[in-house]
Design goal:
By secondary structure, the chain is α+β, with helices and mostly antiparallel strands. It contains three helices and five strands; from the N terminus they run βαββααββ. It is 24% helix and 27% strand. The chain is globular and about 30 Å long.
């Protein structure tokens, strides 16, 4: 993905391929697990879950030094 790109994944497809897990006393959703496996994603990526459909949209940001994502065990 290039800065400014977005990619939407249907809820069912994401949950089917990457299940949620409970680790370090917190739940990691499928979207958390995706971003947790991308080196440097805290500074370049984020995701949004559509309240109506549950679909997840991943977004790539410009590298500005701003943190866009924090893992559940760091929140």
């Amino acid at each position: 993905m290039q800065p400014g790109d977005r990619f939407t994944v249907q809820r069912g497809a994401l949950e089917e391929s990457i299940p949620s897990i409970f680790h370090n006393d917190v739940w990691f959703t499928p979207a958390d697990r995706v971003l947790g496996n991308i080196i440097g994603s805290a500074w370049t990526h984020s995701f949004h879950v559509d309240d109506r459909t549950g679909d997840v949209t991943f977004r790539r940001h410009e590298e500005t030094g701003e943190r866009f994502y924090s893992a559940p065990d760091r929140r």
